[in-house]
Amino acid sequence: MKKESSEENIKVAIYARVSTSGKGQDTELQLRDLRTFAQARGYDIFREYVDDGVSGRKDRRPELDRLMNDAKKRKFDAVVVWRFDRFARSTKHLVTALEEFRHLGIDFISFQENIDTSSPMGKAMFTIVSAIAELEADIIRERVVAGIANARAKGVKIGRPSPVIDRKEVRRLREGGLTIRAIADKMNLKRSFVHKTLANCSLFLPEKSGGEIAEMAVQ
C-alpha cells in the first residue's frame, strides 16, 4: 500500500451495500468486518459509504456515486469492500472502476476475496479479472452475431420495421408543392422515409430548376 509520507496514515473509503433492507440483510455485518480490517492494518477510515436497500443491478447508486466523485478528488488512498459483488454490478463494471482507481493512484481491497491491488498478487488478479471481462464480452458478441445469422437464415427480418406510409398521400402533398420537411412533419415521418418514398415514386421532379433541386436535397 502506497503512502504519500511516512508520517501520514493511509486513508480508506469503506463501501457496503445490501439489496434489501431487513430480511436477514444488514450492512452492519459488512461494516463490522471492514472496520476491524482497517483498524488491524492501521488505516484511517475517511468515510463509510453505505447503500442500504439498493440493488446492485442499478446503474446509479447514491453512495457509490458519491464515493467515485470523492475518488476523483483524491480524498482517500484506497477503497475497501466486503466482496466484489457488493461493489460492482458486473465484471465489466468492476474492471472499469479498478482501471479508474489505478489511474487515480487509489488501491482497491476486497475483504472476502483477499484481493489488494497494491500487492503483486493483487495486480495479477486484476489482470486475470480484466481478461475474464474481455472474454465475456467476446462470447456475448459471438452469440449476438450467431443469433442474427441464424434469424436471417430463417427469414426473420432484423431491425425496426419500416413505418406504414401512404404513398399516394406523400405524392399528393409533394405535387401540391410541400417540401420534404413539411411532408415529414405533417405525416409524422422521418425525412429519409419521405425521400425514399418519393424516389420510388419517381417524384424528385428533375425538371425543376437547379436551385429548387438543391433545396430539396438538403431538406
Description:
The protein is α/β, with parallel strands linked by helices. Residues 203-219 have low confidence and may be disordered. It has helices at 27-41, 62-72, 84-87, 91-104, 120-153, 167-175, 180-187, 191-200, 210-218, and strands spanning 11-18, 44-52, 78-81, 107-110, 115-116. It folds into two domains: 11-132, Resolvase, N-terminal catalytic domain (Rossmann fold), CATH 3.40.50; 167-218, no CATH class.
Short recap of the structure:
The protein has nine helices and five strands; from the N terminus they run E-H-E-H-E-H-H-E-E-H-H-H-H-H. The chain is of the alpha/beta class.
List the helices and strands and how they pair.
Layout: E1 11-18, H1 27-41, E2 44-52, H2 62-72, E3 78-81, H3 84-87, H4 91-104, E4 107-110, E5 115-116, H5 120-153, H6 167-175, H7 180-187, H8 191-200, H9 210-218
Parallel strand pairs: 1-2, 1-3, 3-4
Antiparallel strand pairs: 4-5
Task: Offer a few descriptive terms.
single chain; 219 residues; alpha/beta; Rossmann fold; five-stranded mixed beta sheet; 9 helices; 12% strand; disordered C terminus
